[in-house]
Amino acid sequence: MEFNNYTIKELSSLLRNKEISAVELTEMYLKRIKAKDVQINSFITVCEDTAREMARKAQQAIDRGEVGQLAGIPVSVKDNICTTQIPTTCASKMLENFVSPFDATAVDRLKNNYAVMLGKTNMDEFAIGCTSQRSVFGGVKNPHSTDFSPGGSSGGAAAGVAAGFCAAALGSDTGGSVRQPAALCGVTGLRPTYGTVSRYGLVAFASSFDQIGPIARSAEDCGILLSAIAGKDFYDNTTVELANTEYNSKIGSSIKGLTIGVPAEFFGEEIDDEVKTIVMNAAKQYESMGCTLKEVSLPSFKYALSAYYLISSAEASSNMGRYDGIKFGYRSLNGDTYDELIKNTRTEAFGDEVKRRIMLGNYVLSKENYNALFVKSQQVRAKIKEDFKNIFDTCDCIITPTTPHSAYKIGELESTPVKMYSANICTVPVSVAGLPAINTPCGYDKNGMPVGMSIVGRAFDESTIIMLADAFERSFVRREPAI
Amino acid sequence: MLDMNVLNNLAELSKLSFTEEELKKLSRELGEIMEFVSVINNFNEQPGNIQKNAVVYSQLRADIAMESLPREQLLENAKEHSDTYFKVPKVV
Amino acid sequence: MKYRTVIGLEIHAELLTKSKAFCTCSAEFGGGENTKVCPGCAGFPGTLPIFNQGAVTLAVKAGLALNCQINKYSVFDRKNYFYPDLPSAYQISQYEYPICTNGYIDIGGKRIRINRIHIEEDAGKLVHDDLEGVSLADYNRSGVPLIEIVTEPDISSAEEAREFVEQVAQRLKYAGVCDAKMEEGSLRCDVNISIMPYDATEFGTRTEIKNLNSFKSIVRAIEYEYQRQCDLLESGKKVIRQTLHFNENHGTTKPLRSKEEAHDYRYFPDADIPAVLLTDEDIEKIKATMPELPDSRIKRYTEEYSLPFADAKLLVSEKALSDFYDEAVKVYPAYKQVSNMVLVELLRRLNDTGASIDELKFTPAQLAELVKLSDEGTVSKNAAKDILLIMFEQGGHPLDIAEKNGFIIKDDIELIEKTADEILAENPKAVAEYKEGSQKVFGFLMGQMFKKIGKSASPQTVKEILNKKLSNL
Ligand SMILES: [Mg+2]
Ligand SMILES: [Zn+2]
Fold first, then answer.
1. pLDDT(C409) > 90
2. Is residue C330 part of a domain?
3. Based on the structure, what is the number of domains in chain C?
4. Contact B55 C138 (CB under 8 A)
5. Omega of the bond leading into A153 within 30 degrees of 0 (cis)
């Protein structure tokens, strides 16, 4: 019997009913990774021994009967989230051998819930990218068709869940890095409201956008993971005290009478017609479930990508300064002076896209450009927040396509940076506003590749978008990749 | 296209070295990006208080000292170190 | 002198918090290299600054001590540059929205304006190993909270600069903000200096002398740099805007780096740290914990207590001393007498032994009691000094000590007269000299008297009796 297509909820009940042990389940997943991940390359590190040890402990906890739904569930962690004992590489030559002295808060909380970590997943270097091809360990392939990119930067996480290598995954989302690969791999992925999940232990890309988010086989599973990792953390001053972290509390409630905003700008000419049709049909299904669709507008939409790339690159350029070869990570063998050493170290160990963003970020922050680019972008950001707030005055949530196109062929997007940046046109505005959004698959294109829709919620109202995604998922039939 | 002087200065600020070839490519790409983002020049609104929107206020921690990281663990990831120090080439 | 000096100061003061500014490592000075370091203050990936409330409180106190406006909204920024003592390649500082602005202090009737005070973090320390040709990095100081106090260019001489820094140091110590030990580096000073002809209206080109760590260096560096700039202008050359290092041994300044323009710190708000929001109540609460500052104490001492200005200044030179004095005069408000005992006798003992006020074995009330015993004639002034010495060495109550050592003045007339007779008999030569008009020997005879009877007799009585006996001879 194989359980690789089971949800956390289903696996949890099997474990509880002693139909399978946590150790058996872990072995089953490890075996599948070993057999099939050569095709996908979704893992950078598979930590078999620690996974088995965690499974044993989880089983003991299950036997004591004192555990929640995550106990014994095999999960993966994106390789930019710090773990003790197991390397955290960020898919970069820079951190190839780096082992963090501490666990990220999210990992710590997973461990407290007796989840079993199978390994660390592949990604774009330092989470900068949207194709998961910019990894020093090689690119990730889409399980639905290996000619295609899985999206990114959490491509390994999404592909791993889609391929049944783990029941769920922790990814990270800056401009769409959870939602976009989830959409392109046909799984569910959630970006929480900024401040919900501690960033302690998440290697920083763009500090004012970064959030850890779950990727799983259902909205409900995302809710289970999020409930475990969310909440105020001493080690992250930007986390918020949350009244309620039971994110699945609304699941199954009636969605009748809810108003769903459909912002015209997200269905403009940049969006592929097939995608538009599939997402609009999904929206109409909510109508048939008793919701009201309302056409709304986000006038600042056209500035969002620019503001995002300018601010996030500025933040990244500063966050990347710590990689100098002195305290940790790669150190060039050449360089007699400090200046030479750090230049050589950084030049040899950073990939092209990371270098490009550092250069762009320093350009944005330079004296001459700071006001015109950085300050202006912050003003745009404030306006985007205002625009979303206006929509939420009359709507309970917003539906948008997650991506302007279904999956791209590997290498297709890399031709020019601008083309690549545009792949996040639908996810970036939500990141800029710091709002929560969940991607759930809602159809397949002519090639059979998945298409996803995003349900965007009010700040800290994850339970509503989880409820809505769940309501849709109940009647939507997912196609399992034939791997 | 971005000016070569500007690029060289950026490379220095970034502590990155590039070949002539790479610099030319970067000049073109950064130029394209700047053109792409130039749409924000059309944005001329003055929304509410930006700074106050941009930060989340949280209770600050009390001034209490706690254990630091054991030194061996701190130095473990450094490629070059003595028993007690990180090693750096001479600063010029 | 053709040129006048224009000086602005940047004073860095380490805050007396227990933990660092953005992590929970100890901020205490000293300890083995890299033993007060965590992933956070070593700039490890995945770490975030967790800001210390204590740093806010102390920075506000500094602002109050320096007459600043306390800003209810302040923001942290990143100052980006690479240096091996800066693990994350950016220093967390405040740029556009500092916590305090628009302060001043008056020195000798002149107002020196303070532009701003902002909070920032210290960097680590580099030790240079010339033998191996490497530098060694110790991050114990990395992340220790500092305030930077920036003045307007209102200072016009080396002496004024020294006086200003002294005043700032004293106020910070009073407010418990900083221990201001220049030799340990807890107070450091950068000097911006330019010169201009007296009739000119525009400032000259300034240079910045970095990291002066003693009052003496501040004065010497300014004097040297003034002369250097004068010489340049006199010989038709120009002053170049640059950053200088002051060499203590040679007493000269040298450029640190020449490409000042190449430095673009790319300040921008640090998204990891929430803005500091203060309410009126927060500020009032902090204000309530502020001690009375030195200038106010001097005013009180001179105007209300009628102490000479020099005495008042000496009393406030150290907060503990002034606090001790204030406690003592609460018990016995003989301001001048208590002040004398503190400034002459107590300070002498402290200077002799190198002890500090906090280590005293007796209380201010006990010192007050001692002064009172002396004033009321219960013990002689000389005995009081001896009692203080005993209190200093062993502690104890002055009256007990006086009794135990026979210092209480009893004035046993019979005994004194008997002793006087003995002394006069034993010293015929001295008596003869006295008769011939030498007043000097009277003192000698008095001394002989006290040697015999000890301190239980008052000098008055002894003098009277001795006089009587001598005139009767
Ligand atoms: Mg500074
Ligand atoms: Zn620390």
1. no
2. yes
3. 3
4. no
5. yes
Name which of C95, C257, C268, C273 to mutate to probe chain A: the one with the most chain A Cβ atoms within 10 A of its Cβ.
C268
Parent domain of C467: 413-471
Query: ipTM score of the complex?
Result: 0.97
Q: Which of A209, A153, A189, A216 is nearest to A452 (CA)?
A: A189
Q: What is the CATH number of the domain that holds A93?
A: 3.90.1300.10
Q: For residue range C284-304, what is the model confidence (pLDDT) as tens digits?
A: 999 999 999 999 999 999 999
What ranges make up the beta strands (E) of A8-127?
A: 43-46, 74-78, 116-121
Instruction: Give the CA diameter of chain C.
Output: 98
CA distance A31 to A458: 41
Count of the separate structural domains present in chain A: 1
Only one residue has tokens 């280590």, namely: C359
- pLDDT greater than 80 at residue B50: no
Q: Are residues C240 and C313 in the same domain?
A: no
The ligand whose atoms approach the alpha carbon of C122 most closely is 1
Of the candidates C23, C111, C92, C102, the residue with the CA atom closest to the CA atom of residue C63: C102
Domain boundary among C226, C256, C282: C282
- Name residue, tokens 């007050």: C368
Q: Per DSSP, what are the bridge partners of residue C257?
A: C243
In a domain, A29, yes or no: yes
Of residues C441, C449, C335, the one with CA closest to residue C382: C449
Is C110 part of any domain? yes
CA C246, CA C324: separation in Å to the nearest integer? 39
pTM: 0.92
What was the pLDDT predicted at A483? Answer: 85
Q: For residue C423, is it within any domain?
A: yes
Same-domain status, C199 and C152: yes
Spell out the domains of chain B, with CATH numbers in brackets. Answer: 4-41 (1.10.20)
Alpha-carbon gap, residue A88 to A97, rounded angstroms: 8
Tell the residue number behind the tokens 């009767």, with chain if given.
C472
- Residue in chain B closest to A377 (alpha carbons) equals B40
| Element holding A38 (H helix, E strand) | helix A22-40
Among residues C252, C282, C312, which one ends one of the domains?
C282
Let me know whether C252 and C337 are in one domain.
no
The Cα A106–Cα A109 span in angstroms is 5
Q: Does residue A45 fall inside a structural domain?
A: yes
Comparing alpha-carbon positions, the chain C residue that sits nearest to A207 is: C271
Does residue A92 belong to any structural domain of this protein?
yes
Residue B47 CA to residue C178 CA, distance in Å, equals 41
* Nearest Cα to Cα of residue A167 among A73, A279, A79: A73
Three-state secondary-structure class, residue C413: helix
